[in-house]
Write a structure and sequence with these properties.
Blueprint: H1 4-16, H2 21-44, H3 78-114, H4 119-153, H5 156-177, H6 181-190, H7 193-200, H8 204-233, H9 238-253, H10 257-276
Helix pairs in contact: 1-3, 2-3, 3-4, 3-7, 3-9, 4-8, 5-8, 5-10, 6-8, 8-9, 9-10
């Protein structure tokens, strides 16, 4: 297992030269564009987009507003859901594509060995992957709306009392999930692009979509608890976005990602206990 990472990158680097330059450049451009749009949205929006008090932004302290200074707090609506999903999917592209790049390149390499046409099946694979995260956005949207209604039903003292408990519980659950078999299984698939492609390869464009969906499901299974922390601490918090992007990158790509996985779980559980007790305020909330 110790040399799995070097072998993975050796196989990847050996074939990268054969990939179309446009594919590599377009993936980098897509990631950079997603980050640019998210930063623009974050610093230019004039309305909250998260769990907030109906009719205003008062009470956005800590978990009372889920600290999500930014996503759809104006009640249930098709337009609101569409806006939320668009921003959420853009965020996932910005945060997840860097860590998913080796899998995308490995798919493109395998595709190049079978057919001359590489770009279209590869982007279908990416689209399938992103469809999973878009679907997850629907669950987040529903959670945000119910959370907004719950926050509205509480008076300020109650919100102040329950906010750290809710946020601490989210951190604790995320930390404990790091030690589950499901986390290990999903992370193993994400850390082994060559094995994933060998095991789940499907020919054709439908096959590319199926593979993208499957990889997206594994990726969601690996990262959902970490993103629950993002939802609780600040969907549009740039600091939390950057931190979790780095965390996901380390877990999936670096040689000691499995050790980091356990250390992160302990840190999250500890932080959750401290936050629940009100000993510290959560950093970067409502940035």
């Amino acid at each position: 297992m110790a040399d799995a990472f070097p072998r993975k990158w050796w196989h990847l680097n050996r074939h990268l030269r054969g990939l179309p330059l446009g594919l590599l450049a377009s993936l980098a451009l897509l990631t950079a564009t997603a980050w640019a749009l998210i930063l623009y949205q974050t610093f230019s929006m004039d309305m909250p987009m998260g769990i907030a008090m109906r009719g205003g932004t008062e009470g956005m302290e800590g978990m009372a507003g889920m600290a999500m200074s930014g996503m759809a707090a104006n009640g249930w609506s098709v337009a609101g859901a569409a806006t939320f999903l668009a921003v959420w999917t853009l965020m996932m592209a910005a945060m997840m594509l860097p860590a998913t790049a080796p899998m995308i390149f490995m798919f493109a390499t395998a595709q190049a060995k079978r057919e001359r046409h590489v770009a279209i099946p590869t982007w279908i694979f990416v689209a399938g992957y992103m469809l999973v995260w878009a679907a997850a956005g629907l669950l987040v949207y529903v959670s945000v709306q119910f959370g907004s209604e719950l926050a509205t039903s509480l008076d300020p003292p109650q919100r102040s009392r329950w906010a750290p408990l809710a946020l601490g519980a989210t951190l604790g659950i995320a930390g404990l999930y790091q030690f589950t078999s499901l986390k290990h299984i999903c992370l193993s698939h994400c850390r082994s692009p060559l094995a994933f492609v060998a095991q789940y390869w499907r020919d054709g464009r439908v096959g590319a979509l199926e593979m993208g969906l499957r990889h997206g499901v594994y990726c969601f299974g690996c990262c959902w608890a970490l993103f629950a922390v993002l939802v609780a601490a600040g969907i549009m918090s740039v600091a939390w976005m950057l931190l979790l992007t780095l965390v996901v990158f380390i877990e999936k790509l670096l040689p000691r990602g499995r050790r980091f996985e356990g250390a992160l779980g302990i840190a999250l559980v500890g932080l959750g206990i401290v936050v629940s007790l009100g000993a510290i305020e959560m950093p970067w909330v409502s940035d």
